[in-house]
Amino acid sequence: MAENKTLPTYFCRNCENPLALGEDIISKKFVGASGPAFMFSHAMNVVVGPKIGRKLITGSYVVADVMCSKCGEPLGWKYVETFDLRQRYKEGMFVLEKLKLTKRY
């Protein structure tokens, strides 16, 4: 019998607002201000702040901070633009810090 693997839904740790689906995780190997972070192809119920230039571990980017739409908790950032062709896959992706999330199956 095949195993049915259910993927989690990720929620804001502060207010339980749903933020992202497990099927949208691109990578679990990111680091945010509070530690480990996940890159998602999509996020929901978030507010995207203004674009700003930021120097990150892998180079210079234009990013926008991302906050929970319900409680305003800072969650991570969205990659808006990169200047390195090798990093272009990150554009449009969301990085949400693990410490700011809870997950349920």
Layout of helices and strands:
Elements: E1 9-12, E2 18-21, E3 25-32, E4 35-40, E5 46-56, E6 59-68, E7 74-82, E8 94-97, E9 101-104
Antiparallel strand pairs: 1-2, 1-9, 3-4, 4-8, 5-6, 6-7, 7-8
How would you describe the overall organization of this protein?
Belongs to the yippee family. It holds the Pfam family Yippee-Mis18. Keywords: Metal-binding, Zinc. This is Protein yippee-like. The protein is mainly beta and 105 residues long. It is built from no helices and 9 strands. A 6-stranded antiparallel β-sheet has the order 3-4-8-7-6-5, with no helix packed on it. A 3-stranded antiparallel β-sheet has the order 2-1-9, with no helix packed on it.
Biggest sheet, spatial arrangement of strands: 3-4-8-7-6-5
Rg, nearest Å: 14 Å
Along the chain, the helix and strand elements come as EEEEEEEEE
Number of helices: 0
Model regions low in confidence, pLDDT < 50 over at least 5 residues? none
N-C termini distance: 21 Å
The helix fraction, in percent, is: under 10%
Tell how many strands the DSSP assignment holds: 9
Structural class label: mainly beta
Quote the beta fraction: over 45%
Shape: globular
Largest sheet: 6 strands, antiparallel
Average predicted local confidence, pLDDT: 95
Family: Belongs to the yippee family.
Pfam family, one: Yippee-Mis18
Keywords: Metal-binding, Zinc
Domain Yippee: 8-105
